[in-house]
Write a structure and sequence with these properties.
Blueprint: H1 4-7, H2 10-13, H3 16-39, H4 42-58, H5 69-88, E1 100-102, E2 105-107, H6 118-137, H7 140-151, H8 156-163, H9 167-189
């Protein structure tokens, strides 16, 4: 297991870039997964993760030696996401037929070709989409607690530090979030199936 406290320690302060790159290699995939679960959109998740890493790098000299880099990084990401929601609202609409402006002009958007095997694609994605939609419908505080605990394996103490709230509040948010998820997903999980008797 990688000792992140040692990496962020004094011997690496002289070579901030190398230490930071090693820490990023350790946490970038986990950060992206959390961002994806929070945003529900791959492009927005990449943007959120990239902005969090950029801000973490810019402030790396302020990182407190002996503390958890992971908690610090996820705190930055969660604050960025909350700020984004406050500033822009929950939904962003984008035209599918308007070209994308670039520095060299415009390029046409291309949509993926789903003609391969639509039934198989639908079957593979149906439950996953329902779970993601149910997760997106949770209030942000519940969603962040559930994602960090159930999907990413953070402890109550770590989540408490990331979300800047008490452990009791973390437990309550996880419990309430799970209860809401259970209620929203019940029709898909507990469907009665027809069994033919022959």
């Amino acid at each position: 297991m990688l000792n992140t406290q040692a990496l962020a320690g004094a011997q690496y302060r002289e070579s901030n870039i190398e230490a930071f790159e090693e820490l990023v290699r350790t946490y970038d995939q986990k950060l992206y997964r959390v961002a994806l679960r929070l945003t529900g959109n791959a492009d927005e998740a990449k943007d959120l993760a990239q902005e969090a890493l950029f801000r973490a790098y810019r402030s790396f000299d302020k990182f407190k030696i002996g503390t958890s880099f992971e908690k610090w990084l996820f705190r930055i990401a969660s604050n960025l996401y909350i700020d984004k929601l406050r500033k822009h609202g929950k939904y962003r609409f984008e035209s599918l037929d308007e070209p994308i402006a670039t520095k060299d002009g415009y390029i046409e958007k291309t949509l993926p070709d789903w003609t391969g095997n639509p039934e198989e694609i639908v079957e593979q994605n149906e439950l996953s989409e329902k779970i993601q939609a149910a997760l997106q419908s949770l209030p942000i505080n519940y969603r962040m607690a559930v994602v960090l605990y159930d999907l990413e394996g953070f402890s109550y103490e770590e989540i408490s530090g990331i979300l800047d709230c008490s452990i009791g509040t973390v437990r309550s948010r996880i419990h309430r979030g799970r209860r809401l998820l259970r209620k929203k997903l019940a029709p898909y999980v507990y469907q009665e199936t027809e069994v033919g008797v022959g």
